[in-house]
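PROTEIN SPECIFICATION:
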Amino acid sequence: MSIYERIRQMCRDNGETVTGLERTLGFARGSLSKIDRNSPSAGRLQRLADHFGVSSSYILTGETENGNTIDVAYYKPDTAKETQKVFEDPNLRLLFDAAKDSKPENIRLAAEMLQRFKEMSGE
């Protein structure tokens, strides 16, 4: 999948158009359709990544930093929006920040707790 196809898919998954994304991010109209031919700047990549809540390497390659491919269509749009809100809230962002410095066993414990919450909610 090309960079543009990945961006188009993420737009679809978030209920927006590529043209709307360009307008939101202040990019020239039609510039994203040429992103595979023109090397995108690091700043542009980061703005796209921040908008979608993914890494810039995912925008480029479709792979996470550990090399695993993620299926963006798997995530519910409402869940993605709530996750972005949590990420942007300084009081809740510690959920993300804590994972950076945590021991693997603590991350596994947190993941197990979240899984139990999910099971309790019936999803």
The chain has seven helices and no strands. The chain has a mean pLDDT of 77. The domain at 3-72 is CATH 1.10.260.40 (434 Repressor (Amino-terminal Domain)). The chain has two domains: 3-72, 73-120.
